[in-house]
Amino acid sequence: MEIWGHLITLSVVCAAFSLALYGWGRLGEHLLRIRWPWPMTICMGLVMVIFLGGMINFLEIAYAATLNAIMVFGLLFGAVSVFIAARQRLVSGPKVTWIGVRHVVLQAGPGAIIILAGFIFVSTYLTPPAAFNVYDDFETYLHLPLRMLATGTLKPGIFSNFGVNSLGAQAFLHGFVAANWSVGYVDAVDALWGFVLTGTLILVIGRRANVPGWLIALAVALVVFINPQYVNVSTSYIGSALLIFLLFLHTGLRNNTASLNPESARFAGITGMVYAALVALKLTFALVVLIHFILTVIAIFAITRQARPVLVWVFCAVVSGSCFLLPWVLNQAYKLLPAVFASSASGPDLAIETYAETRVNELDLFSSEVFIYGFGTGYIHYTALVGLVLACCAVVIFLGYRNRTLRDHRTILAITGCLILPIFYLLQMSMIGQWVMGYDTALRYTVPVLIGIAPAAVLLAASPRSAQLSAGVSTEMLRPATILVGVISVALLWGFSGSLESRMRQAMEYRTALSFLPFNETGKKKGYLRYNEGAFKSYSKNRFAKIQRLVPVNETILSYVSLSIHFDFARNQIWNVDGGGLGSPLLDFPFAGSVDDAARYFSRQGVHYIVWEYRGYAVPTSGDLRNLANSAYPADRRSARVRLAFDRLLKSLSKRSEVLHDDGAIVLFRID
To answer: Which residues fall within 8 angstroms of residue 224, CB to CB, at 6 or more apart?
Structure first.
């Protein structure tokens, strides 16, 4: 009974969140004079709510009451919209027949069963998870929605990676959960609700595009089977859903015969809005947004053969995207502007101990060797997904050529939609992976794009509308093309089946989707789970509350600890420190300077109290950091080296300061 109650509760919460976003989406559709199927309307609502999140964070009113008011308005508007639509359908809509119901069930039923099974599994075993990432989640992500709800805005300070890796939309969405439930449930926003939204988009768009039911089911199954490589609280599936929405903006309309004029200002404006939402969620989506923008501009020129419509489209898309992104950027201005105008002569790597760097391995995209996040998969599995998308692109081109529709806007935009993934994949792996973060990490950031575009490409290739087939004109070629895409999809599902089995087994045994080392080594699993369990216990909360009471109210605290989720962000201004933030090029801290230089820097920033966790399970040892400092990748080297320098400075600074608390793991001291 407890499991059923848990499932019912999560079902109601997800349905309410969907209805609220549907309401905001319907408002957006009214303003734009357009109508999409309901999952796309939810995506439109998501875009609008993300913009609202930037506004209320900039105005510093993003409290629980404000977020709940956004939800209530969306629920009311959504409920009214559903009621009106249902009444219109009863009065003037087509009559429901047994043949029609049978067709819908056969076409959508298999895919719906897959989505339902995924929802039940994730709800049962992973909501909430038993383990978060000890480093990224506790140190970087989980405190953000709590901070926002307590202070009305997302400003964790200049020592945080926040503002560099994300502008805040992810944390804002987590705030809807943290405002009413435990912060441990925040990952359900993406891992549960985002997953269902992504699958439902594929299901509904495929049915409306008249794609065969068996192929819709395969496309939905790809969403389930592709290993998302969960390492921390993320926006993998929400990002995938917005990418699917982006690819079907022009053709995925409510009327099966309608399409949105691709060179119109309205299409450009909506596209810019989606761009802004993606970038606000995670800055790693910026590259795929840029690629989509360039390919779409080329497509508009190919459709119109004129420069003026292209320039108008570019102007409208850029202005729309900039306006929707501006509140999020302004919210980080306190951090970004000083960094832009800073003229510090001492970069983070100056006068820091030199380490031997390891050599970058040669990239092999066809390697079957299992990598650290793989759950049994290798690069070849993800490269094969790119192959599927290229095959879908070839099908669209072939059918367009046979039907003399290669210049039609639907065919051209279907081709450009498919080309996004291979271009992004190659650039991400060969450039970002090799020179910035490493191949494994670069591939992990590629997965949301793979999960979104690969199933969408299947629909584009198998849809008669994308191929612009006229009655009796080469329709016989669609069936073998569809079978070819289906065969490749089945092969990919088989390739990812081992990964899916391993992920399910781990979820059932350990209740976590984390896909990295601690859960690949038996000896580390118990300690990892034990730390996660203790992180939410009352004694952990009391420990940090006791430390914070030693600091006067309204004083700024520099927090270099893992579990800053237990601080009262309304009592004191808490500046969080994380590894990514220390390694950020926006930070002008004097890592290469003396202790006096560090003390003066903190004083200028108004920081007089520092709480530092120098020993503990979640604290990387100096040996770990030294090994990372030898990395072949600049991002890892920079982060490790500045952390070593920062630790040395804090250690020296604590010895000459007034120590208020030291329990052998965490020290609180006041800078003289």
So the answer is: 114, 118, 199, 500
Q: What span, in angstroms and rounded, lies between the C-alpha atoms of 469 and 474?
A: 7
Say whether pTM exceeds 0.90.
yes
Provide the CB-side half-sphere exposure for 339 (13 A, CA).
Answer: 18
HEC sequence for 427-487: HHHHHHHHHHHCHHHHHHHHHHHHHHHHHHHHHHHHCHHHHCCCCCCCHHHHHHHHHHHHH
Q: Before 94, cis peptide (omega within 30)?
A: no
Identity (one letter) of the amino acid at 566?
Answer: H
Helix H or strand E segment including 494: helix 478-510
Sign of the torsion formed by the C-alpha atoms of 194, 195, 201 and 204: negative
Query: Rounded to whole angstroms, what are the CA distances from 572 to 194, 310, 553?
Result: 34, 51, 6
> 3-state DSSP call for residue 264?
coil
State the DSSP H helix or E strand holding residue 171, giving kind and residue range, or none if neither.
helix 169-178
Token code pair at residue 167 = 């502008």
Q: How far apart are CA 274 and CA 296, in angstroms?
A: 14
Cα–Cα distance, 111 to 419 (Å, whole number):
26
Beta-carbon contacts of residue 536 (< 8 Å; ≥ 6 apart): 182, 184
Q: pLDDT tens digits, residue range 475-503?
A: 566 778 888 899 999 999 999 999 999 99
What's the CA gap between 654 and 672, in Å, rounded? Answer: 10
Q: How many CB atoms lie within 10 A of CB 98?
A: 7
CA 442 centroid distance within chain: 14
Long-range CB contacts (< 8 A, 24+ apart) of 555-559? 555/608, 555/609, 556/605, 556/606, 556/607, 556/608, 556/609, 557/607, 557/609, 557/610, 557/611, 558/157, 558/159, 558/602, 558/607, 558/609, 558/610, 558/611, 559/611
Question: CA-CA distances (angstroms) from residue 310 to 61, 249, 293, 411, 547?
Answer: 39, 18, 11, 18, 59
Residue holding tokens 């430390």?
A: 547
Pairing type for strands 607-613 and 556-560 reads parallel
- Distance between CA atoms of 49 and 70, rounded to whole angstroms? 8
- Helix (H, G, I), strand (E, B), or coil: what is residue 613? strand
- Two tokens, residue 258: 């309608």
Is pLDDT of 653 > 60? yes
Q: Please, which pLDDT band fits residue 401 given cuts at 50, 70 and 90? A: confident
Burial of 655 (0-12, 13-18, 19+ CB in 10 A): exposed
pLDDT of residue 343: 40
- Residue 37's nearest CA partner among 195, 205, 216, 199 is 205
The whole-angstrom distance between residue 17's C-alpha and the CA centroid of its chain comes to 18
**Going by DSSP bridges, is the β-strand pair 573-576/666-670 parallel, antiparallel, or unpaired?**
unpaired
Q: In the chain, count of helices (H) and strands (E)?
A: 26, 5
Task: Centre a 10 Å sphere on the Cβ of residue 69 and count the other Cβ atoms it contains.
Answer: 12
Do the strands 607-613 and 658-662 form a parallel or antiparallel pair, or are they unpaired?
unpaired
